[in-house]
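Exercise 7.
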Amino acid sequence: MPTSLSLISRCFQTPTLLLVTLLWSLPSLAQDGSTPSPVQQDSAVATDEVHGLLQKMASVPQTLNYQGSFTYQHKDNPALQSFRVLHWVEDGVEHERLQHLNGPAREFVREGKALGCDTLGTRLLQGKISQFGANLARLDQLYKFEIRGPERVAGRDATALLALPLDQFRHSALLSIDNETGLVLKSWLVDESARPLERYQFIDLDLSPDMATMKQPIAKVHRDTKVVAECNPETLKQPQQWQLGWLPPGFVFVDQRQVRQKIDMLMYTDGLTTFSVFIEQADGAIPEGVAQRGATLAVMDGLNYQGKSYRVTVVGEIPVVTAQKIAQNIGGI
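Solution. The predicted structure, written as tokens, is:
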């Protein structure tokens, strides 16, 4: 199920990274000196518009101090939930708070990465893939992007950007991006039948928050597990002990760590979408099946390796067919 932290991650990091990638992956305009046709001119205008939008998205949001409220809804629960997010940069490091505004008071805190520290996902999104090998796909080879026009969200002017996957292994997304700051003010994630899986939308945004107030918790604080990702990697790495016999096109291994000292967790991304694989030794019958809430699903399967049984769980905002194929193609090294 989607956690508050996964929600905030997608809300405020992924769209930014996506747009950074697009900056580098958009096709070049005609440079052969010939006169462009009307269709080419229209395409060039659209490309310029996307390019400008992406430049803003790539450079601004992670450096901003802001606070805002937004609503969140997923397909399995029609009730609207409301949250407040607070984001600031201090001594070159991003900080975030996510506060539940409905039900029991809860608050999640996450310490972000330092500015200037690009993870592998960021580098992929920046289009810096040549150093990692020729087999990596650019994001525009995985998604078709369309500008869907101007929009007004939370009293602010925004531009709607549609990301349509070019295969059946990922979901579509419609993002409304603030024209001034590049923040994603609204996001819809939809399945292959165009049915909304989950969505969030800002209802207000303050770009001049009081810093002292932002740092004060209002409820019991839950801290996100800090993931120390490698800064500015130069090469691709492979997981230890385990390997995936099949990966959706464009996905690469990001990191591996242990959860509760006995579960191996492998993380993958294509720059826009992420998924994780959990592998745990188990005794007795291992349940198999699918659980889903909103856009996030978990596919469970069993694995026999070197005479031992393991429980495999694939978790991510990916279609069932993708998660099942991943789970069925895991083996040891």
